[in-house]
Amino acid sequence: MPKRDAADPADPALGSFDPALHPPVAFSADDWAWFSGRCTALAIPDPDAKRPALEALYGHLIGVNRWLNLTTLTAPRDYLKHHVLDSLSLIGDGRLKHLSQGAACADLGSGGGYPGLPLALWYPQVRWCLIDARKKKVEFLAAAAGLLKQFSASRDSRVTAHHLRGAEAVREPTLMRACQLVVSRAMAACNEVLAEAAPLLQKSGHLIVFKGPNYPGEEEQKALVSCKHLGFRALSQRWVTLEDGDPERVQVVFERV
């Protein structure tokens, strides 16, 4: 991938979010075989049916990433592992099996669209709201959401992008206290995520925060203190390893009470 400062300024793809200017990029047979095998190991169903959509999302991401900083992980296997597989590892949590038809779910601090975009592919029966406070990233997310329409059987997109912080949910009546599930990955310290998620979640709704192996300790203690003030209770921690030899990652689950 060329460096941003080496890119041709006359290239119409630079500065554009249009998926037509950032076409799909195919994964190699080896990379896809690795990904499919890891999906099987993590009980993630039916990856092959989602391959065209993931190749379209990947092409769009790395195309826009040429001029807008979305990710430093752009190699195909890095993308499949650290963006897609990491997002989909949440499928092992039972709460996703009980999402109501048409329920609102939010990806808070969505950035490049992960975990929200892969989860929207695997759970199209719910409304996925991709939330970010950075306007340019929301424009990217809106284009990616439109791209997913092409892979919807009904051509009806249930994915939307929203330019706000969670604490500003009052500006969005469709989000205020409306979400059954909020997920957040690589956004901020857990106590800050709790504060941002509180206005979004309905009573008995769940927040799941992706964290690294250093979460237990000071960050966890601060989160538990915030729970008392914000109306949450800590429910569980689910530890996940994406590949043998990797450090464990934890998905921390809270309930809005």
Written overview of the protein:
There is one protein chain. The chain has 257 residues and is α/β, with parallel strands linked by helices. It folds into two domains: 20-85, no CATH class; 88-256, 3-Layer(aba) Sandwich (Rossmann fold). Helix content is 34%, strand content 20%. The chain is built from seven helices and seven strands; from the N terminus they run H-H-H-E-H-E-H-E-E-H-E-H-E-E. A hairpin with an 8-residue loop joins strand 6 (232-240) and strand 7 (249-256). Helix 6 packs parallel to helix 7 (218-230). The chain starts with 28 loop residues before the first helix and ends with a strand.
Write a concise keyword list for the protein shown above.
alpha/beta, 2 domains, 257 residues, single chain, 7 helices, seven-stranded mixed sheet, Rossmann fold
